[in-house]
Sequence to fold (735 residues):
Amino acid sequence: DTSLAEVNSFSPSMPISPSSMINQYKFEDEPELRDLFITVDDPESHITAIETFITYRVVTKTSRGEFDSSEYEVRRRYQDFLWLKSKLEEAHPTLIIPPLPEKFIMKGMVERFSDEFIETRRKALHKFLNRIADHPTLTFNEDFKIFLTAQAWELSSHKKQGPSLLSRMGQTVRAVASSVRGGVKNRPEMFTEMNDYMETFSQKISVLDKIAHRIYKEEREYLNEMKEYGPIYTLWSASEEDIADSLKGVASCIDKCCKATEKRMAGLSENLLPILHEYVLYSEILMGVLKRRDQIQGELDSKVDALANKKTEKDLFSEEIGKLEDKVECANNALKADWDRWKQNMQCDMRSAFTNVAENNLHYYEE
Amino acid sequence: VLSFRAVESQSEGQCAPVDSLWRRYSEFELLRNYLSVTYPHIVVPPLPEKRADFVWHKLSADNMDPDFVERRRIGLENFLLRVASHPVLCEDKIFYSFLMQEGGWKEMVNETGFQLKADSRLKALNATFRVKNPDKRFTELKHYSDELQSVISHLLRVRARVADRLYGVYKVHGNYGRVFSEWSAIEKEMGDGLQSAGHHMDVYAASIDDILEEEEHYADQLKEYLFYAEALRAVCRKHELMQYDLEMAAQDLTSKKQQCEELATGTVRTFSLKGMTSKLFGQETTEQREAKIKVLEEQIQEGEEQLKSKNLEGRDFVKSAWADIERFKEQKNHDLKEALISYAVMQISMCKKGIQVWTNAKECFSKM
Fold:
């Protein structure tokens, strides 16, 4: 029973005091307190008769007791990451599961297997696993452990276990049916606030993402023109005597400006752009989590309503309702705690991303 | 000259109605044409451009745009300064009365009849004249002026594109300001940092306007030398034409002398239609022949005098042209160096502004 596991590792009455928040923040930042280190690298192309796909090497180093070994190296493909994400969502419907990079990127017209695309995806996958590792609950998830440690054949056989697709679909349908009203009616104020916040936040973050991309594009255009600009001074210096050196000087300065611009652009693409993109995806995820919470609440509400009409079967219902009430309470608490954690992370990420941008600009102008 | 210049620039600076501005510019053109024709051996200072060229997108290509009008005013003032500080041109009376005389100046210029002196052949810019003994120095100089024209116009074009792109980079940052402000409304702890950072982004975006306006001065300085290159080329062309005329005159003289000799000795060294017809239809009478010889001898004498004076003219031209060219070279090197230095200073100042803004922004971000 996964909801029980949540109660154990996460006390609902944990005080959210400033000092405890700082401790949470530090836990993620202090590498010494970490006991699970994961890297994703070395993309390799595999060609079979049916398809071509890329696998990534996932290296895990750990000092945890529940792991048989202290080091693991496995190869995973994108599909495997998708599987892991869906298992985590299933097990923890109201926890904030980190986003995965998208399947395709339409707007950039980037080829599916271009080096740039593969590298961007690799970095995002690396982030994804590390975010899970840093999460106080998700890090102990069994499927996560299997993902990190199992050999390819072990993983595929494990994937085949568990409820079949059909039965899982049945569960979803029943859950949706019983909560058609969505549980909005009795929604605690806190979650309405969260919803409102997320609506605005996702708007703003998506605009920021566009702005940052636009800046990157303008910088690239600027760089292209500058690359043509410098050599003209060199060409001119060939016709001159007295001022030839001055002209060559200007040409070399422009060349330095080009290099500085390239650095600045690299800073954007390595830091700000991936973070903003990640939080655009996070916005969708959070809206989904809030919906799921509402659904769980909805299940409870519809049962309570049904009870109001059938006073005779009170006992049967009350046990079921009791279970649902627990479920709702756990879901709410899990979400609340995870939300606070997410907000802290978000603040930290944004602060460091934008500070990094400012620093890159300073370096640029200094050079 | 200084005091008169002040008067003139004042009347230039007045907000004259559109019509009179155009007349003024055309009067400047008239003055310059007069100077070019009257002093063909001088590299005459150029006028600022008639139409806005090499504009980057925000800058208006409209001739009535106040910024353009102002820059043109400065260009015209600069033209007058250049003429006034030229050792030869500053003495010219027409120039003097341009500065002093309000009415009737146009008529005065036209009365000089300088248009008659203007060689219409010079207007055909690309026509080539086959000069047998070109002066190597002038050929090299013409080549240089072509290169200078080509490289500066390329430079100005690309600079305008660079300015355009830089404008884009700065202005998009302004969008951060708006979004940060809206975002800060829903944040508790991050709100202040975001809001103040947004303000700095607005400052950053706004700063590009002044930066690029200053850069226009640099572009104008380069433009002056773009047009100077044309003036330089014009001197070379005039020399080329002179040389061509000289060679034609010498050629003509030689052939006349030859004709004379043939008539005198009765030998026909070269084939001529006349010779053929006279053989076919009989010789001329002695009187006819002697009359012809006399005419030719007169022409030859005239021709020799003309050739002498043309040679003299040519040598004088080369001497004084070359003196002015040396003067021009020094001026050019000095001015361009100054322009490059001030360009570098502008870039440094732009970077300093950037450092200031981003230092402030960084502080705000780190407080988020």
Observations:
- The two ends of chain B are 63 Å apart (CA to CA).
- Confidence is low (pLDDT under 50) at residues 1-22 of chain B.
- The CA atoms of residues 219 and 330 of chain B lie 20 Å apart.
